[in-house]
User: Fold this.
Amino acid sequence: MKSHVKILNYFACICLLFGSMASCVTDYKTVSFVRPDGSVYREIYAKGDSAFLAGDRSKSPYLFQLDSAWQISRLNVNSDSKFFKEYNVKIGKTFKNAEEINAGLRFDEIYRPLVAPVETIHKRFRWFYTYYSYKAVYKDITDKISVPLDDFLNVSEQKLWFKGDFSAYADMNGIELKNEMDIIERRFWEWYARNVYEVMIEAIIDYEKSISGQYVSKIQALKDTVFLSVLAKHEFLENDPFETVDLYKALDKQLNTGYFSGLYRDNQIAIDSLVEAKGACINDLTDKLFQVDVEYQLLMPGKLICSNAPVQYQDTLSWKVNALRFVSGDYVLTAESRTVHVWAFILTFMLLALSAGCWIATKKRCCFFGFTKKKQ
Assistant:
């Protein structure tokens, strides 16, 4: 397979944003139960193959290695429910605290942003209530991306596009929002195209260095110009991505020569191999991290006070978690609840009643002795 083809498969994967290729995603459902003592019971649902269901843990569908403490349960696959068509196995485990959840987990490092968020649970005692605060921070993946997103989208646009935060656009109607989304979408594709372009142009420069190096400085000077010229010929990047050969043709045009097209024609296999090696980081994102979609649910002890969950059904909070939400910064889940100390209310009432009774008794006693003394 040609390297540029493999790298540009990521364009197709990004189409997950629009739900057009949801079938290529692996779905998981994680449910966390925070208990009053601060411990956590976690369940993770997945779709396992027959070997795993038969007891072969080496065939696990999960993103981390399962130790013996994880309890595996098969689900009722004969049910007509959509849920049981998506998942056929569940694992469950109890943790003493949030810090213990990720301790000792073994997984492919590319999955770290999804598998090992930084989770904390704080328990605060007050006389009438105990307050519980939960926070999960999924770290951003900007270190895996060469071109800053800020060069193409502002903070509000990033929050809207990647995290579904419409707060900066609350005053827009449907038509206005559609126009704004079209602009953001175009800039998004340009940003991604620039990332792919940087991989390709770096490979071109490295190959040029390996043979003569005579055009290296000129290629570096023309980087932005070549990108814009290639971009102009590929208006719909998601359907018509550019390839390595397009960059060589653009260089020929800018320098008024046929050198680059001939170079690529004669050395295509070597150049494509170099592009593929340079694009390994993008391939990892494409083949692994961006292929996972998690429905994360949380149940807190007592009464829920507040959270940033987009969906709440009764006491269950729900977030959609995938790597797209980590592109523009950390993705943070928060929730706070409280439990009532019935005994504190009863005890306080009793103490108040006792205090009031003592005060009334003292008042009556004072009045009685005052009346007796006056009579004498």
User: Anything to note?
Assistant: The chain is about 45% helix and 20% strand. Residues 3-39+96-340 form one domain. The chain has one domain: 3-39+96-340.
